[in-house]
Specification:
With 141 residues, the protein is of the alpha+beta class. It is built from 4 helices and 8 strands, in the order E-H-H-E-E-E-H-E-E-E-E-H. The chain has one domain. Strand 6 and strand 7 form a beta hairpin. It is globular, with a radius of gyration of 14 Å. The relative contact order is 0.23. The protein binds zinc ion. The site of zinc ion has 4 residues, from strand 4.
Length: 141
């Protein structure tokens, strides 16, 4: 099936690349690999926009030396309460806009998410394809 990444996530990645143009992308990703596909993951293009499958999750590599500190970026996203956010996973914790909204909880999945953070956006087109700038900013090291 044809698939694409949600436009909101492409926008976020562009903004982070502007902040940290030389960052590592070693753990970046949108569509699920075979390992992801076997699971209940937003990296699967299961949201449909006509005949196209939409991937509504992105992984961004934690690279503090390269200017992309996941701890800080995740915190600015949480602070923004951006209405597109479904949930974020970072460093063994998860925070959702829907399940116990905006309260950090332990994340005990197989991948501890210490090398990248994960963002899922909501499955409605008005959310996932919104290209409104995200409130991410460079924080001095
Ligand atoms: Zn992910």
């Amino acid at each position: 099936m044809a698939w694409r990444a949600a436009q909101s996530l492409v926008r976020l990645r562009e903004q982070i690349n502007q902040i940290a143009p030389r960052r590592s992308i070693a753990s970046d990703g949108t569509i699920g690999d075979e390992n992801h596909r076997s699971r209940n993951s937003d990296h699967n293009p299961w949201v449909r926009d006509g005949a196209i499958g939409i991937v509504t999750a992105i992984d961004i590599t934690h690279d503090p030396d390269g200017g992309c500190n996941a701890e800080q970026i995740v915190q600015t996203l949480v602070d923004s309460r951006d209405p597109r956010i479904k949930y974020l996973i970072w460093n063994r914790r998860i925070i959702s806009s829907q399940v116990r909204p905006w309260v950090w909880r332990d994340y005990t999945g197989q991948n501890p998410h210490t090398k990248h953070f994960h963002l899922s956006v909501k499955p409605e087109k008005a959310s996932y394809d919104s290209t409104t700038p995200w409130q991410v900013r460079a924080i001095p090291r």
